[in-house]
Amino acid sequence: MIKEVIVDPSKVFYDSTVSEHFHFYNTDTGELTDIPEGAINIEHLPELPEGTVSTGLEVIVRLKNS
Questions:
Q1: What single DSSP character describes residue 64?
Q2: Can you state the percent helix, strand and coil of the chain, rounding each to 5?
């Protein structure tokens, strides 16, 4: 099983890690790497619009070389 990760309209990655996790994306190198599990803590999400349910949450931290 793989998950599609879209980092911008022209760049798509396929991720074989199926557990919930987030990503770093380096815009200079084009590298996508996993953020360690537990490194991001999201405690509060906005109330969902009526008649909807959440199907997931994606976080991509965009980086560039300094």
A1: -
A2: 0, 35, 65
